[in-house]
Amino acid sequence: MCDTLVAIEGGRVLFAKNSDRDPNEAQVLEWHPRRHAAAGARLRCTHVEIAQARETHAVLLSRPFWMWGAEIGTNEHGVTIGNEAVFTRQPYAVTGLTGMDLLRLALERAATARDAVETIGVLLETHGQGGGCGHEDRAFTYHNSFLVADPRGAFVVETAGRRWQAQAVTRAAAISNGLTLPGIAAESSPLETFVSACRARRALTLAAAQRATSVADLFAALRSHGDSPTPRYRLLNGAMSAPCMHAGGLVASSQTTASWVAELTPTRIRHWVTGTAAPCTSLFKPVDLHTPLDIGAPTDRADDHSLWWRHERLHRLVLRDPSLLTLYTADRDALEARWLAAPPPPPAAFAEADHHLTTWLSRVRAASPGDTRPRFVRRYWRLRNSRSSLT
Question: Which of 158, 182, 318, 335 has its CA 20 to 30 A from that of 101?
Answer without folding.
Answer: 182
